[in-house]
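cache lookup: miss for this entity combination. No prior model stored, computing from scratch. Input as submitted by user K.M.:
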Amino acid sequence: MSKPSLQRPPPHRALLRRSPLGLVAAMAALAAVLGYLTLASQFGDLAGHWWQAAVAPDDVDIRQVVLHYTFLPRLCVALLSGAALALAGCLMQQVLRNPLASPATLGVASGAQLALVIATLWGPSWLLAGREWIALGGGLLATLVVLSLSWRRRLAPMVVVLSGMVVSLYISALNSALLLFHQESLAGLFIWGSGSLSQNNWEDTRFLLARLLIALGLAFILLRPLALLDLEEEGAKSLGISLRNLRIAGLGLGIFITACVVSAVGLIGFVGLAAPAIARLAGARTLGQRLGWSMAIGALLLLLTDLVVQQLSPLTASLLPTGAMTAALGAPLLLWLLPRLKLAGTRPQPSAGLTLPQHADPHRRLWLLGLLAVVAVVLALGFGFSLDAQGAHPAWMGWDQLDLVIDWRLPRVVTAAAAGLLLAAAGTLLQRMTGNPMASPEVLGISAGVAIGVIALMLLPLGIAPLSGGVTGFAGAVAALLLLVACNRRSGFVPERLLLTGIAITALLDALRAIVLSSNDPRAQELLAWLGGSTYYASLTSASVIAVVALTLFAITLPLSRWLTLLPLGAPTARALGVDVDRSRLVLLALVALLTVAATLVVGPLSFIGLLAPHMARLMGLHRARHQLLGAGLLGIVVMVLADWLGRNLFFPYQLPAGLIAALIGGMYFMWGLRKI
Amino acid sequence: MPRARPSRPAVVTRIALLVGVWLLLTASTQAAAAPRIAAANWSSAETLIALGIVPYAVADIANYRKWVRVPAIPTETIDMGLRNQPNLELLAQRPPDLLLTSALFVRDSARLARLMPVEIVDNFYTGKDYFAGTCAMTRHIGQLVGREAAAEALITRTEAQLAAAANALADSPRPVYVVQFSDAQHVRVFGAGGMVGTLFERTPLINAWQGPTNGWGFASVPITRLAEHPEARIVVIKPYPRNVAAELADNRVWQLLPAVRAGRVSEIEPVWTFGGLSSLSRLTHELVAALHPAAPEQP
């Protein structure tokens, strides 16, 4: 099965001898012990009848029914889902040549969830046809959008992942908007959304087993051609392979199997990312080995997590969703793995990157953007709903109501503008620094660190006076930053590794968020609003503080344009031109962290602007570091201020968070722009 | 940002206005004109209406009509947006004389107090148990709006109803699970610390769920845990989330639960289980109606 003739430089001898067998055997042994413990603790009363209950339960004895219809199918579903997700992740990583690719990166999971939310709210009768088909439809539709966005670039790996992340963010923003208004009706979807493996019959097991077998058969057929993707693109092309068809087939298979898992048990994203990475680190080399070992590792990983969840669940009043727990347990694992992950050979090729013509007159563009920002601010301050005897209706505010505008609209507009500026600057720094258009403050995990701190405060008993969101949020940000530095110091802050560290921290936030939301805690509503990025709590004091902070930090950023111009050329070039690469990266990193903390504390961690504004600036032809920084800053202000205005007035008196609307507007523009690349 | 700070005269005006409003409010208990009260929390909205007050504004009226239902919100009451984020632009244009908010949203009350007097009224997180906390909340609201007598009457009425329920349920030895479905595999099961817990305390009814509950008096559990007491009855508080009623037909565990096999399952109409005394009174009524006539006399 190995093809020595196709291998690139012969691997190190020590690596050749390594095999994931030992790891898998250890995991299996641990699973067996935990499984026995769970059985003994939950079904100790049935001791001696375990086999009979498993095979032919006595319908009158509810304990045997529970063992037969919940415990056993749950074990099977955990194994099958884990294996299936690992298979999907492995295929996607192989097709996209990107160790960050996973089912979640393509928007399959969020597409499936959105389809189910929509069906639940507006077409409950569709659900009778089978919720899995609706989820499948949503997942496929999201993927089709991703593929059509990257079609012109012949599905180049980096463009596919970029489109996938944007579509995924867009869909989850839509999801959050719907959940914000319908939380009481959608409690069940929260539980499903966070991946609960609870079973009450053998339906899901049969469903997954049949599909996994089909997928395995197809994967076996694709194995040889896909293995050729290990060659460089040109090499594979010269061997006469249709790259496009091959990628579509590989991706399609991965999506199909992901959608099946999502429709059966919900979102369990981390396994698809982690299992192939662990397999590779443990010594699986060829594609065939990686597929096989990934599936074994994925299955055991999910099973182990689920057994731990089952051990913990009697102790708490809220549900522990297994899907969210895999992320919570998986994040530290990923952080541990990172220094051991060989990323050098899989780095996205700069040649396949985004190059655009520079606009002839960037200064005119910048002045136009500035004018646009002024218009947006005037509109956001002046136009809104006025209350009279008949009720509230849209109107311009009179001068006599200036007090009202200053008290209740100005703080929100200023806060939105400042947050837009901060996030745009952070995003520009990150994208320039890493030379990676997928970089954003959110990916770095600083926003997630702040959010984890704030959630921790919410979960503590009320009335602990000296603590505030600011304190715990800042502590979270510092912790995230320390983690980033600790994990990346030795490698000299290699861009990809930095982003991966950030993603691991973000996975932890996602896990916490899902656990809180599915716990049916009425405070989840408040959390959801904050996570959406609301300016609701802005006051004149907080707005002036954040405005000063934003302007100061932005002013500090501007003189750094030399670094920002040279760093994207690559570390060796930059070094040759006299830049102290490590020091400049550390300074820029600290600056990004400050920018992100300031923005997150006021408008929550949904910083789509940070990904978006620098990109929009580039699509507008603002290429030089200084121009891009200014353009992105102005765009960030325009989008955030308009988003806040729409959020306040679209469903008056109900208010949508500005961050959420920004993601919805910005995402649309971004996707449109992406098509033109 | 020169305009970002309110001028000194503006602050003085605001303080004067605040004092004026406060005087007006205290004066209005004697005067004929009823104070305009806004309620951000459904429990206080429900209690206000039960005391005969027409609230000036209530949050999220659409969902109130779905989840709380009774007492109905008067048509002249305006909607002021989400419960945890009442629309301040709207309130600022014609501030109510008093805003009732909940302990959950206390983070914002200092800022709201610049617009209007703000009172935190809550029946959870008071340090008292649910019933004592809710009675205290009712009295508090009664005092604030000058309807002390109506508040006392409401409490007395509820006490009497609970006593009657205790009599009616005296001969029901079977423990009961009181649940609300979140999906076909999970329920909120109610226990100590909430409205349903109060009924278990004040009547001879036995709660089959003895596990831990959260601050609102429920736990989210898979339905299999309803098999832990095979002899128990199950009372389901409606509404079912969409489609769950249909999915339960295929759910082998639900179908084979001892209570379901023996037909010991009853449904009751939607009740806001985090609400005030009028919700408690409806829950009591529904529960007695569901349990009493059917209470089986098996050994």
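stored under new cache key. The first helix of chain A runs from residue 13 to 17.
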